Amino acid sequence: MAAVSPLRALTRALSGITRRRCSAFRRSSASARNTAILVTLPPLSYLGYETLRRVYCATAVFALDKAEEVIEQADYLYSCGETEKLYQLLLQYKDSDDAEFLWRLARASRDLALLPNITADQKKKLSYEAFDYAKKALEKNENCFAAHKWYAVCLSDVGDYEGVKVKIGNSFIIKEHLERAIELNPKDATSIHILGYWCFAFAELPWYQRKVAAVLFASPPTATYEEALVFFLRAEEVDPNFYSKNLLMLGKTYMMLKDQEKALLWLKKARDYPAITDEDKQVHKEALDLLKKLNG
Question: How far is 22 from 84, CA to CA, in rounded Å?
Fold first, then answer.
């Protein structure tokens, strides 16, 4: 398992990020609804049809409003870190055909799996559940950037239980879905960041681990620190100061590229970032340690 240690870091890269909502709900047009009524109902007088149409439309609007209300409630719980409440709320919609519910349920399942009180067996179960929900979200709406993002993240998670060959093989698919997420939403800094992390993970792969990967695959995944830097800088350009870990990774990448001046600049930003979450605190500590190392 030593051969995939950088990839394990990848599975945790999104643990504390504030993520964006996906695109708006898909809505059927009013004409499509009317056509469906005309096809499925026996002949009606115009007055009877018009009355039924209004009732149908009112019901549809209510259902849409209810769905949006649940989404807003879910996003509020997520922003407050109420992971268990969020999971229980969204679990009611596990059979939904709406990707908006499903990708959020995938995220909530994954976040629940990462809680310290969760047993190893529960974590494995939740990780596979999260992947199933993300997969279903993608099946329901392949144009939802968040579905692609969470499919990539959850696929990385389940790879920890599938062995070295599967883990490395999945990394190709992970990259493809991250790239698709960015294509669908170029303003989502988190997808850009995680792709940068993907590049960094493979750039720092030791030679003996590369050799193991080469045995398993004729063309194992590769990346450079220069590539990672492009994505980290792009994420910062899209949403400045959005995530303490992105600041830290910029500092670490510049260190690997032997640019001490810029490394110091970004590590100081990571150090000075408000430490609100546990991850922020970990970033703060690592930035301090690296600054001490650079300053001798």
Answer: 21
